[in-house]
């Protein structure tokens, strides 16, 4: 007997109609269409069973439930948890109510999230940062103190900065479904909810490093990479190795020939393609450990594309030919006494300031990052590249 053909379901999202398999969610259907109609998703992760339904960023309006029952749904629904019905009509960016609701969700997510992007390791690849730019408002109406937590090293490789966590549950599902044991979870309720390990057990099982990749914010960071570089200054390269534990297909984040960080490769939705093991992620930090396939194709909308270097055409150097072979560095040959205001540049013992050039030719300032040297940790909830606070 011939296998019965599956009847595809018709769904229209923002006036674009497509057909999807039964069981598909509205979010999956929108991703099939692609582009701006795809709702943002901070907790759903297609590779993690049961994920979704926690953050409400993927809200859409169902203007008609199905051909059989064309009534609109009374409230906005989470597209990652709403199944497509035949004849369903959905509004994503075409609904002012949806756009307004997303703004509200961003405002709620930021109530307790510190605005420390300039010193956060996740900056440049943070889903919450992108979400705030794309869907947030300029200000917040929240007047109370944000809740803060001490940073904790959970195991030798991972640091938890709970202050930044948005309780999306992804890391909990990774520990449950990808690694062979889970020792952390979300404890307590309401405002007290937090990701915590069971009596500070370290998360040291073989695949636990993947929690770093799924975390949409900078709450779980790689201790072998923390504060080493900004992501847009690094060169992402696809590489692989013959690994006994995982497929060994990774992305190397390099500076020159140095491997600063190893992560899993991510697809266009920012989701991991293949989970990688801790050995590949944390212990193979030499370029010679890997077979490098070539530069990662970076989406031009990503800030990481700022350092994109594929097919770079360098301008022809014209200095030497017109200066009879002199090298440009000669220009930097600063004389011991500056011709400007008689400042003795070789004698001042720090960065020059306004005062140096206005009367006091020996005056110097201090570098802003040195101000806190020796003053111990920053206040809870803040972060810094200052060595004293790491
Ligand atoms: S630590 Fe990160 S991945 Fe885990 S729940 Fe918080 S935001 Fe989500
Ligand atoms: S992605 Fe749908 S609720 Fe979070």
**What overall geometry do the principal axes of the alpha carbons give?**
globular
Low-confidence stretches: 368-390
Helix content: 10-25%
Side-by-side strand order of the widest sheet = 2-1-5-3-4
Radius of gyration, whole Å:
26 Å
What integer is the average pLDDT? 84
Keywords for this entry:
disordered C terminus, alpha+beta, four-stranded antiparallel beta sheet, single chain, 390 residues, binds iron/sulfur cluster, 14% helix, binds FE2/S2 (inorganic) cluster
Description:
With 390 residues, the protein is α+β, with helices and mostly antiparallel strands. Helix content is 14%, strand content 16%. It is built from seven helices and 14 strands. The protein has helices at residues 26-33, 96-109, 127-135, 170-177, 210-214, 278-283, 319-322, and strands spanning 9-13, 16-20, 59-64, 77-78, 88-91, 152-154, 158-160, 184-187, 194-197, 220-222, 235-240, 249-255, 258-264, 291-295. The strands form four sheets. A five-stranded mixed β-sheet has the order 2-1-5-3-4, with helices on both faces. A four-stranded antiparallel β-sheet has the order 13-12-11-14. The protein has a three-stranded antiparallel β-sheet with strand order 6-7-10. Mean pLDDT is 84; it is low at 368-390. Bound molecules: iron/sulfur cluster and FE2/S2 (inorganic) cluster. Residues 41-44, 52-58, 78, 80 line the site of FE2/S2 (inorganic) cluster (FES). The site of FE2/S2 (inorganic) cluster has 13 residues, from loops.
